Amino acid sequence: MTNKCLSLCLIAALFVSSSLTAQTATPAKKPATTTKKAAQPAGTKASPAKPASAQTGPAIPRTASGTVDTAKIDPIKLTNQMMMVFMERMKAGNYPEAREIANQMIFGHDSFKSTESKQYKSFHSMMEKELYLLLEGRQGRKPEVEWVEQPISDGFYLISILDFQEGKPEEALANMQRAVFWNPVRSAFYSERGFMLLRNSAGPNILMAQVAYIKALELADNAEDFVAALRGLSFIFVERRMPDVALACLLVAKNFLPQESEIEEEMFFIRRNFPALYDSMDLAGARQTLSSNRILADYAPEHVQVLIRLADIFKSPKDAPHALNLLRRALEMSPTNKEVVRRLQVLEKK
Asked: Phi first, then psi: what are they for 98, rounded to 5°?
């Protein structure tokens, strides 16, 4: 029923990550870096240095002593460049070079030692960090969180995808868990975990896949991630003989991304097998069905709270455009939120 593939989801995550980071605030404190040299991947033999034109991907800028030159790192550009090169290598079937790129992305990760009072995380944006702090606070935890501005979480994510492509599901799930450890609020990681759990060589784990997709739905703060989670849940509910919930997932997904042709293909499966159900359900009915099954039909309210928090950072009149951008995005996610509307009206009058 579902035609979702790992590479397409990865590409979507790449571009969504870029756009989100551009819209969120830059942290006032410089994120942590490591001075540890990149280790050679285990199990490989030393080889002569390659000329610049033959390098597998963008290298981490270093000083003469071999430490990371933080002044020359733009973490967003670095992550995006490395992910694009990774995709090129993987599409070409060059898994060794793709793995080498991913290993560069996680270099030095073991030099960051988290404790109960201080944690190191690899977020994509300030919005993700604020969301993590919000969710931790609700659990009564208030750790100091240091943002490691290296693509460690993405690196483990890519290694997981390589493991899965190479037929190593256990290693893939273990590395996906490491990606989640470094960034516990990244929706795409949970969607990919759900995908892998459904296609495990030992047989599909429907229950755990459903848990993963539900978590992905809660963490999604953009249409692509939200729809990916809904499509995964739709597949699960078809397997569980709950076609009404499956159709509801797809109708809501279609409302988020009307141009997504694969959603229409998946809806055709239900229309062909359950024509009366298909004809009787509209978008309002779909939302009610999801609500009755405790499944989100819209973005979780925590994302709007985070955007308001970030907007509050910009107190100076000269920073008003940044606050406006954040609040406008919050309004897109929750058009009837009175607090967001009020704050926008105040700022727009200035």
From this structure: -60, -40
Total-model pTM: 0.80
Q: How many domains does the chain have?
A: 2
Minimal CA–CA distance to 237: which of 275, 202, 209?
Answer: 209
Which residues are 32's β-sheet partners?
Answer: 148
The string of pLDDT tens digits covering residues 138-154 is: 988 888 999 987 899 99
Task: Specify the DSSP element, H or E, that contains 300.
Answer: none
Residue 86 binned pLDDT confidence (cut-offs 50, 70, 90): confident
Domain with residue 232: its CATH number is 1.25.40.10
How far is 196 from 210, CA to CA, in rounded Å?
12
Rounded-to-integer distance, Cα 57 and Cα 23, Å: 27
Give the three-state DSSP class for 241.
Answer: coil
Triad 325, 330, 336: Cα angle to 5°: 130
Give the domain extent around 317: 302-349
Instruction: Convert the pLDDT of each residue in 108-137 to its tens digit.
Output: 999 999 988 899 999 988 999 999 999 999
Residue 148 is classified by DSSP as B
Share of the chain above pLDDT 70, in %: 77
Residue 46: inside a domain: no
C-alpha–C-alpha distance, residues 239 and 251, integer Å: 18
